[in-house]
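Lab notebook page, bench 4
Experiment: in silico fold of construct C2
Operator: M.H.
Input chain length: 158 residues
Purpose: comparison with the prior construct
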Amino acid sequence: MDRPNYITPAGYAALKAEYDALFGTERPHIVEVISWAAGNGDRSENGDYLYGRKRLREIDRRLGWLARRMKAAKVVDPAMQEDRGRVFFGATVTIADEEDNHRTVTLVGDDEADAAQGRIGWNAPIARALRGAGVGDLRRVTLPGGEREYEVMTVRYP
């Protein structure tokens, strides 16, 4: 990875919890099902065996991805931010567009982004445009729907 994988402590805990659940609970259960199914004889038409092997590959692939993301993670606690007047990682920002529509977003790690919940990834176009902005600053963002200009209304940290 060429750039750090910034993540909040809560985001890292969620990745770790998923890893632990897959590795400690789901994977051993699937291995047990595969072992049982293999003991039943013909594996070529054994649905439990075939599905179990497929699911095991999916789990192992996800475990590898989670392990790489956690290894590259740089946990940043937004509550420890010193300059609370500017937009940096973890900031909750209220912005207004040209039509005075207000929107509140929180800049989080790319692995914990959820636009429906107002959490946008640190490397998203709008997040890149807002970095370093203070209250009252205007920022222009090129989005798939065209270019938009936003004014920073408030900046908060937990």
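Observations: The longest helix spans residues 9-38. The chain has a mean pLDDT of 91.
Next step: discuss at group meeting.
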